[in-house]
Amino acid sequence: MLKMPRKKSKSQRRLWWLKLKHIGHNTWRRVKAFYSRHTVLRRLSYTVGSGLGLVLLLAIIFHPLDHKIKRVGASFSIKYAQELGIDWQEAYQALMDDMGLNYLRLMSHWDQHEPFDNQYDWTDLDWQMDEAAKRGVKVSLAIGLRQPRWPECHYPPWAKRLPREEWHPKLMDYLRDLVERYKDHPALISYQLENEALNSWFGECFVHDRDHLKADLTQEFELVKSIDTQHPVVMSLSDQHGLPTGEPTPDIYGFSVYRIVYNTQIARGYFVYPTPIWYHRLRAWIIDVLKDRPILIHELQLEPWGPAPTPQLSIPEQDRSMSPAQMYKNVDFGRQIGIDEAYLWGAEWWYWRKTALSDPDPWVAAKDIVRQINAGKDFTIPAD
Question: Could you give all domains of the chain from N- to C-terminal order, each with its CATH number?
Fold first, then answer.
């Protein structure tokens, strides 16, 4: 009978690692000594290495990518629609029936669906999912504590009073019921877990310890995958910065693209985000190399970011950060990054401008943008 090979002990593995480390250290020391004696060769190596690095960088930046967003969706929040004072059901249906969107990113805010401890109310989310399924529209469902729209972390009032050690198990119970309920729904195509999970500078969230955040995120990810292995899990990076160097590794990564915002951190006023197209291309390439995962734009800015909540801004003030012309420019910017899939940000605002302020221009612009992308044609920006 064949014997199974014995597993090396901890001391044997440590001895093997020390030997390997010693060999590597000696090899590096010899290489350094060799180059110190050959100045010309050292300079030539630096020049060649720098040249190859520059060529690689230029190849990433200027590579002739297929500059088309092939699949376009939009985020939609009942909570934000109600904040704007619009009929959220009419707005939601209009996105599918008039706008022509075939993909939506919906929210499952914890405070809306578990208003009392262990008492779930899925009425509104059931209605949204069923209405999407009737039309063949596909849904990427945001799940977890941190989801789009202020205050970012959507605690039920009863959970706010509890310490993390008590409310997080309650969140896990909520996640379990949520995933079990919708995993077989015909409209579902993916989950988006904990929007910008490690973004500790924005939102009203009570946990900022990165070790706790990472531990919670890993636990939630493993729970979702243990229940549903059929649908991919998307995880978004913190705002427009950062690289996914840690765990867990989702099925898809997402990052946001914002262009014009009102800044209060350095000097008050509007400014263009200093992240050029090549920055996003390089970042996408690094993510692909590090993690070998697809990437999408989970938020492409198509709504204002002004000095006050949008309902308090005049139309001219809103247009300073997001006019219909700027909407086309932002989509063209996102298109040139070379990523196939993008979810537009601002659907509730387009409908609010159209119905509450009698200004259909943002809605018309968004509808034309969606039409062009769905048609698969080259993107054109109307002349001013």
Answer: 63-375 (3.20.20.80)
